[in-house]
Amino acid sequence: MGKPYVVYMLECSDGTLYTGITCDLKRRLRQHAQGRASKYTRTRRPVTVRYVETGGDRSWALRREWEIKQLTREQKWRLIRTHGPLADRLEEL
């Protein structure tokens, strides 16, 4: 079995939130920082990690990403605030 998938949210330089999935968060964040991960974040750098949720397989991650993308901006920020200290979760990955 491979690495578990991660759902993450980034805050872009213009204040917008970007949601994505990956099985290698460090690599994906490096790609975002270099402008090679997505067209959306390429023009909105720098980005800051605001939310990380680990789970199971790709299917789980895609469902969770869709659920988060259905939330309003206010609901996303509430999720970010109530999910606990981000630094602890980043060290685990």
Automatic annotation (TrEMBL):
Domain GIY-YIG residue range list: 3-78
One MF term in the entry's GO annotations: endonuclease activity
Pfam families cross-referenced by the UniProt entry: GIY-YIG (PF01541)
Entry-linked InterPro entries: GIY-YIG_endonuc, GIY-YIG_endonuc_sf, UPF0213_domain
SUPFAM superfamilies in UniProt: GIY-YIG endonuclease (SSF82771)
Membrane-spanning segments: none
Keywords: Endonuclease, Hydrolase, Nuclease
Domain of life, source organism: Bacteria
Family listed: Belongs to the UPF0213 family.
Official protein name in the record: Endonuclease
Organism expressing this protein natively: Laceyella tengchongensis
Classification lineage: Bacteria, Bacillati, Bacillota, Bacilli, Bacillales
